[in-house]
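Researcher: Let's do a round of design. I'm pasting the structure tokens now; please hold your answer until I've finished.
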């Protein structure tokens, strides 16, 4: 005698149970992908921080295949996307490769990829010029407008280049917690980054660029460790001096004060994630924008 078909409500219960089990199984794999990605990120960062560690000698391909769902074919494709040769070891990666690998692992670990880039560098290296180029040519990138206590230079527009504020207003902003960071730059005026526009832009998934001094970059690193810190370098020291004098916006005393600060700042370049040489404005701008997270297909 053939078995009788199950009544429809029994089918529905069985189907619902199967769906719950499948959902749980998918969640378990997803969690373990996130956990293993977090572990892989910790391993990579140990290797980057300590070149003598065992982690630094691990091949990147081995690191990636430790993540469930990444088989050899997907790893090979990913290495290609990240522009990392398959012989590379964790400790031997270049700074851009590290940024991209970190971005990938952070995303897989369920975290937010870095969409905030901080551009710093010595006076007159061209930070303002490169930032202005990015504002013009990459309109989807939010260029933060700082508050400052210095007066506008000819051609500078309040709300576009800076918010030009009094000392009292700057004090109020600090007290109200409105600044992500602030610093007295070149021992003269105060400059600070308004926080609300940055939080809003990042929450909306936009890419954000801050063009600030070295002290500010250090403070942003503390407040937002996921930010990528870029140090803009002049082709040579002589070219830096030429650009400062050629700009003609400071008198001789201010120029020599700025060059003193510049020497100290140049010595701190290794604190940064990536160095970009400003030979050519459009090329430097492209290099900076390329560091900002764009999703990598998994
Ligand atoms: N790639 C480049 N080649 C030649 N000149 C450049 C280049 N980039 C910038 N400059 C010039 O160098 C001078 C300094 O540039 P800019 O004012 O952008 O520097 P900065 O880093 O913002 O300086 P500061 O920190 O003092 O505000 C300007 O006259 C600018 O036109
Ligand atoms: N820490 C911060 N530094 C800032 C900010 N905005 C600009 N700056 C830096 O100040 C100097 C001088 O700028 P200038 O326009 O007077 O020539 C330059 O190095 C900028 O990068 C800021 O919000 N925070």
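Researcher: That's everything. Go ahead.
Model: Designed sequence:
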């Amino acid at each position: 005698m053939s078995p009788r078909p199950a009544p429809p409500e029994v089918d529905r219960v069985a189907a619902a149970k199967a769906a719950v089990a499948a959902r749980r199984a998918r969640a378990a794999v997803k969690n373990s992908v996130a956990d293993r990605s977090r572990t892989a990120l910790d391993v990579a960062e140990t290797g980057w921080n300590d070149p003598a560690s065992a982690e630094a000698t691990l091949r990147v391909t081995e690191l990636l295949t430790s993540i469930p769902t990444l088989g050899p074919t997907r790893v090979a494709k990913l290495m290609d996307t990240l522009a990392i040769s398959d012989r590379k070891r964790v400790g031997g990666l270049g700074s851009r490769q590290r940024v991209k690998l970190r971005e990938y692992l952070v995303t897989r670990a369920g975290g937010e990829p870095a969409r905030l880039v901080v551009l710093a560098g010595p006076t007159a290296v061209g930070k303002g010029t490169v930032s202005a180029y990015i504002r013009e040519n990459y309109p989807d990138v939010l260029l933060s407008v700082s508050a400052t206590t210095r007066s506008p230079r000819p051609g500078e527009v309040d709300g576009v280049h800076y918010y030009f504020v009094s000392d009292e207003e700057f004090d109020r902003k600090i007290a109200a917690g409105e600044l992500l960071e602030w610093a007295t730059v070149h021992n003269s005026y105060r400059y600070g980054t308004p926080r609300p526009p940055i939080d809003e832009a990042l929450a909306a998934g936009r890419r954000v660029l801050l063009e600030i001094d070295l002290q500010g970059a250090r403070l942003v690193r503390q407040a937002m460790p996921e930010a990528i810190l870029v140090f803009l370098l002049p082709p040579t020291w002589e070219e830096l001096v030429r650009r400062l004098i050629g700009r003609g916006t400071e008198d001789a005393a201010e120029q020599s004060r700025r060059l003193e600060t510049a020497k100290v700042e140049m010595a701190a370049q290794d604190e940064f994630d990536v160095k970009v040489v400003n030979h050519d404005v459009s090329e430097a701008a492209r290099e900076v924008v390329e560091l900002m997270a764009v999703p990598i297909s998994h």
